[in-house]
Amino acid sequence: MSLRPHDPEQSALSLRGPDPIPATQLLDTWQEAAGQHPLHRALTLLRLGEPDLPLDAAATLPLGERDRRLFTLRERLSGGVFDAVAGCVACGESMELGFTAADLLSSIPKVTPDALIEHGDLELRLRPPSTLDAMRAAAMPSRAAARALLLECCVSGTGEPLPDGLIARVEARLEEIDPLADIRLDVQCPACGHRGDAPFDVGAYLWAEIDARARMLLRDVDTLARTYGWAEADILAMDPRRRQAYLAFQDAP
User: Fold this and answer.
1) Cα–Cα distance between 123 and 117 in angstroms, integer?
2) Among 3, 151, 158, 220, which residue has the least CB neighbours within 10 Å?
């Protein structure tokens, strides 16, 4: 089961504060990210909050560090409270879950830049996987090939494939040094009592809110352009409160 915003449109309303971004900037980001692979899209969203961060630098951040920054962006845009919903895998009932970024992040250790594993004569240096690593792995023809590529990217100190008996140890250590790379929340269905874990992807959650907000902005532009003949740039440049005041006239009797 995976978590998603309970009501993306309602949640998107809060993207007007507490630290809103210009409407044109949000729409430009939405247009760029709409057709991207989710891994690439996460970088586009990250650079919405950090426009001076070069793409190659963003792509090589550990996955957990990237997502920690996405949490910061989401908190800046609409606060740190998350209202999510997931479908129970046992009975199909919808489950609602609320949590805060502060509580979640405080319970998960920060990324460890690297780690060492000694195995006989081998001394392996491990680093956490990055978005670039994940993109390369996603392009592989099978899960086994993707797994092997990630190990090749993240482990140095050996010029040959890892022994089978060491792979599980290395993978467990990689999870330990970047626990934020794979967030799983413990959930229990109120209807049937089934308990399980739900992966939480902050990039996907934030994208659902931004996608909903962008579409709301486009509807606003369409309404005001049809009514008053104003250009998109002029409508988007308005203070949001003024724009909403004009829109309210359309609903007045």
Assistant:
1) 6
2) 158
